[in-house]
Amino acid sequence: MAQWTSAVGAAQLARLLKSQQDRPAGPGSRRPPAYRALADGIRLLVLEGRVPVAARLPAERELALALSVSRTTVAAAYEALRTEGFLESRRGAGSWTAVPAGNPIPARGLEPLPPEALGSMIDLGCAALPAPEPWLTRAVQGALEELPPYARTHGDYPAGLPALRAMIADRYTARGIPTMPEQIMVTTGAMGAIDAICHLFGGRGERIAVESPSYANILQLMREAGARLVPVAMAEGLAGWDLDRWRQVLREAAPRIAYVVADFHNPTGALADEDQRRRLVEAARSAGTVLVADETMSELWLDADVEMPRPVCAFDPAGSTVVTVGSASKAFWAGMRIGWVRAAPDVIRSLVAARAYADLGTPVLEQLAVNWLFGTGGWEQAVAVRREQARDNRDALVAAVRRELPDWEFEVPRGGLTLWVRAGGLSGSRLAEAGERVGLRVPSGPRFGVDGAFEGYVRLPFTVGGAVAEEAAVRLAAARSAGGERGTVGRWRRGRSWLEESRAAVPAAGGLQSPGYVRALDLSATTASADTGSGSAGTRSGAASAGVVRGGRRSSTAWRWSSLVASS
Ligand SMILES: Cc1ncc(COP(=O)(O)O)c(C=O)c1O
């Protein structure tokens, strides 16, 4: 059986390769052969998640035609990628992208810092803010007053408290989506909701299409449920979904579930527009795929003039395709652990059965507290506080990062809680490791990818503001100097990571055959510099020597994953 789960066409790959040429590149003077430049370009696309892992590449002849190069050039590039572990091929099945073996994905390590550690460490691991007081206290007091009648029951409500189900249903109806309480199940956070959905629809080995990048904990939840994840690359910047790619994946991979975050996507912050929503629902419906729309961030528009599109479920009036997940975690407080699902009544009944073996139900007191907030208008006031905090934090963080790290690239999202940052060609994993030593916890990009993509990214949440945001950027710059700086990489390792090599090799301007494209670094020098991790004192940790042994040779691949970093 073929090992690919999606495909990239020749024209599409040519377009992606061309788009790299508009990006800043590392220093380079020597010209590698055209095949080398092509291999580097494809490798960078894989590492940055723009071509997913396990995507079938076009046949050599087709790509040669699309790029106007000889077939020999493409064949040599594919061969180079195969040798480096970035491509696998099987006769009759074609060639598909891969990442070198032996690189565990940094999927674990979700331990938040204990309160006592917060004095010395700035924690950018979690995209969640402290409780918006006084609303938490008021909500709990309100809940305590409502508790006595419930205390006289056994307290198990697998579908949620009837009062809260009705309240959530009314809120959808008020948004223009008529909803009955039977269409709502209250869950233990959005995580509990997705867990139940995976149990119901996504049996072991079942395919689940996910945005790439996507929210790290959900990806891991799905992996542990035995799903086969099919990554669908997001469009550049904040452009949201690439509908052509989605249609192709839905058609060809026919996944059982597609999981998307349409509102201020975590980690990119993208907001899908109504047209994208409509077309994705249509594509999912024709593929027979259950479209799970995670609305966890949907109330977090931060700029006053943002016009929120209608919810994804608005484009599925019959309720046959879309399952919506909501949560109080981002708009209010993650410590509540309250989430919900909106779906057709029969789906809700099955989900209630599916969740019963996990947690039987969600704590009554917290449900009453959220119900109190919804019923009194406290929710709206608390969310307004939350938006203001997040907006101030975003603005402070953006200004500080621009000042301290002017070559890092990002687009400023208009809502949500996260900034997705391309770290100037540096390894996000190294930055994360170095950050731990300079008092900064920051999650590296690969946590948000399916198979080791996004090595060049870090995610920065809007959880700190003012002087702390400034200090966070100063520490990020220190982490760069301590571990990630291209020029001082030798303190960690003598060689460069594949990412650094690829970024250095892909030039800023010009076509594949133009001098601009081929003016790239000769990689042989760096790949040959097998290092033994002879770091300077202070950097000589276990992380300092992390080459991958392949074909008897220790390459300079620097796939090192920090297992310490949380990433909510
Ligand atoms: C998109 C998304 N979905 C779900 C969650 C988890 O939500 P909950 O705390 O309600 O389980 C998060 C938390 O960061 C998130 O960003």
Q: Structural class from helices and strands?
A: alpha/beta
Q: Supply the CATH class of the largest domain.
A: Alpha Beta
State the end-to-end distance: 35 Å
In DSSP terms (H or I, runs of 4 or more residues), the helix count works out at: 19
Backbone shape: globular
Strand coverage percent: 5-15%
Mean of all residue-level pLDDT scores: 81
CATH third-tier fold name of the largest domain: Aspartate Aminotransferase, domain 2
**How many beta-strand elements?**
17
Task: Show the helix and strand layout.
Blueprint: E1 6-7, H1 10-20, H2 34-47, E2 55-56, H3 60-67, H4 71-84, E3 87-90, E4 94-97, E5 122-123, H5 135-151, H6 162-174, E6 184-188, H7 189-201, E7 207-212, H8 216-224, E8 228-233, H9 243-253, E9 257-260, H10 274-287, E10 290-294, E11 322-327, H11 329-333, E12 338-342, H12 345-355, H13 364-376, H14 378-404, E13 418-422, H15 428-437, E14 440-441, E15 457-461, H16 466-484, H17 498-505, H18 515-518, H19 524-528, E16 548-550, E17 553-555
Parallel strand pairs: 1-2, 5-14, 7-8, 7-9, 9-10, 10-11
Antiparallel strand pairs: 3-4, 6-12, 11-12, 13-15, 16-17
Helix pairs in contact: 1-2, 1-3, 2-4, 2-17, 3-4, 5-13, 6-13, 7-8, 7-12, 9-10, 14-16, 15-16
